Amino acid sequence: MKELSSSQIRQMYLDFFKSKGHTIMPSASLVPVDDPTLLWINSGVATMKNYFNGSVVPKNPRMTSSQKSIRTNDIENVGRTARHHTLFEMLGNFSVGDYFKDEAIAWAWELLTSDDWFGWDPEKLYMTVYPKDDAAKKRWLEVGVAPDHIIEAEDNFWDIGEGPSGPDSEIFYDRGQSFNNLADDDPENYPGGENERYLEVWNIVFSQFNHEPDGSYKPLPRKNIDTGMGLERVVSVFQHAKTNFETDLFLPMIHATETYSDGKKYGEDAKEDVSFKVIADHARAITFAIGDGALPSNEGRGYVIRRLIRRAVVNGQKLGVDGAFLYKLVPVVGEAMKAFYPEVLENSDYIAKVVKSEEDRFNETLTDGLNLLNALIAETKKAGQKEIDGAEAFKLYDTYGFPVELTREYAFDEGIGVDEDGFEAEMQQQRDRARKARNSDNSMGVQTDLLIGIKSPSEYVGYTQLAVDDAKISDILADGAIVDAAESGLVQVIFDKTPFYAEMGGQIADQGDVLDADGNVIATVEDVQHAPNGQNLHTLKLNRAIKVGETVTLKVNEHFHSKVEKNHTATHLLDQALRNVFGEHTQQAGSLVEPNYLRFDFTHFGQVTEADLAKVEAIVNEKIFEEIPVTTVETDQETGKKMGAIALFSDKYGDKVRVVSIGDFSIEFCGGTHVKNTNELGLFKITSETGIGAGTRRIEAVTAGDAFAYLNDHDQLLEQAAGSLKAQQVSEVPGKISQLQDQIKALTNKADSLEAKLASQQAGQIFDNVQTVNGKQLITGVVQVSSMDQLRQLADTWRQKKLSDVLVLGAQVGEKANLIAAVSDDSIKDGLKAGDLIKAISPKINGGGGGRPNMAQAGGKNPAGLQDAMTEATNWLANLA
């Protein structure tokens, strides 16, 4: 067999399908764009959904890609099996209504067996087919597959619910008897069974049916091909690796980890090998995910990253790694993958910074978690129990990132187990919550040919003119059908040429009118979107009937258009200003350009200060005042990149692109409309800045007249404030406010002092009232204080003076009731817990609470029940065994 690197194998696959007329598609970002059904891009076809459901027609119906993907549904198996991964690459070839089974099968056989390509031994290849798919079986035989190497399997039907579906054919590679882990007569010992010998390397889906809402299957108007070949598996075959991990995709990270471990070597201990594999796998996943803009957080994809980092750190500790190390693997990942993903190595410093920050934080948390685990083990043994409670084990996992296997190992060392059923019950509840939180939309829409069939040419001329006198109506859609004429209501129309901008790249669509030859408005343009074949599709509200072939005048609302293009140009200035202030790692994460304001989302790891915003705002205004010409050229992508143009990773660009330059300050790919000179923006003002997710910030801003109005409103507010403060000049306002703050502080200190004296007097009376209950000294009382802090101060005084065994105090603060319970250290040793006490008495105030064994607190909505709570505290202590 050929000796090939992973880079060579990937490129060979892509080159093969390029030779068959396929366009090589770039690997899309792991973070889905405009797709709420996916947490991550999890397959090659996930990036092709708009093509397969018909909402967009590809320029070439034949496409191929090597798509990075993330799946975390079985993360616990990573490292324990030969082929489970969180990040993997899916090689695929796709046909959207073009070729079908004959070509897909013939090309698959050619790629796998031809000496010009993979050159695998045909005798080692087996194919499974759907029993009713006679055409696929016949084609495999025709290309040269032996009859006994074709196996029928009932589960060879790809179906995810409503949407495209169809039979599939899986390809298996026989790795030989040395990999056989089953007896010869085992029912799973066959290609397609659960075994190690026959490795599935490719799945070819023949998408030919629509799974209808009623459960029926109807033929698709256009049959499609969707295939998936796992790169990691194919590399393991070429490189004669026992598992995917002994390949050049993982070994660099494994060997680097060896240098950080306490003398551990991969391959010497099976248990330690699991940790090496987990670290290598997770290092790849977090590096790529953070590189694509995702950041650690407590929810969604950010939680996935945090969980992966924590699992890797814990496994590092098992190998004796001291301190943060995972961030050091980031450039190792970048170097290993640079042939196809050079951007990872280019951004490795930023990615490593994010990882190290998370590692440092978790290493602090890990210490707390270990302390909690040790306390939990001690408490379990003291109670005479043989297992750690499943809910407590889950808390360790969910709150501190402790994998249950780590809890199990620590517990085992102490001679106890873990309630696995209880843990799994908590895990299932979490899965159910996550499932309900996910969007229930289908991950693949049902195919429709209504708009796909419209191929009338339509020219957009809005870059140079905002009115067209001789536009001809090419197509009309009304009530879900293509019609020759429409009389009233809302309709969708395609013109042979149009000045109306279709919504794209965050810039909203133009508005305006459709006029007849006499200048009468026959319709208003309410929206413009792109049709599947690229035409501008206008939504019109009709004033009179229209018909196909009619010539009309199209006129854009110039004032609306002008305000939008000012704000759009401002986003370009803002984008570059943010890079100047925060660094090149900052990327646009979305935008909305309206006539009255702009919204700009960007990635940034860390806080944004007022000083930072002031710098950004100053840079943008400086470029406005410099009166820089805004120029646009149309060229190809490669030339645009050489010009230094910035491309949004989430956007798809055609063969021809527009490069918008604002002097040498900003150069971007952009299909939107722009001013001719930055001086048209007049003024730029940031109105708000907030965080909208882990590592993603949002700026809202205004320009021109809206910026002036914003500043004018604030000026009036400042004048009002000056009047209220009786300041003669606006400049005196800060000083007046400072004086008021000093006065408030003095009054607050005086009030606090008086309250402290009152509380001390009350404490003296209450602390003298000690009763003995069930052999324990108890102090209870309802006091007048202004906050929970003062209750805690009284409890601290009680503890310092050792006035009794148990203390219970209550107070009404506003309309709410507060309780605090405290237990002396000696009484804790006797089994008393403040948390148990507070739970027993808090129902009297219609509340709840908890805390530590030595102190607990509660809040409720029934202050009238405070005295009853004191009585209940006495009863609780009296009834203790």
Automatic annotation (TrEMBL):
Name used for this protein in its record: Alanine--tRNA ligase
Gene Ontology terms: cellular component: cytosol
Family membership noted in the UniProt record: Belongs to the class-II aminoacyl-tRNA synthetase family.
Ranges in a coiled coil: 737-764
Boundaries of every Alanyl-transfer RNA synthetases family profile domain copy: 4-713
Catalytic activity: tRNA(Ala) + L-alanine + ATP = L-alanyl-tRNA(Ala) + AMP + diphosphate
Domain of life according to the entry: Bacteria
Cofactor: Zn(2+)
Location of the protein in the cell: Cytoplasm
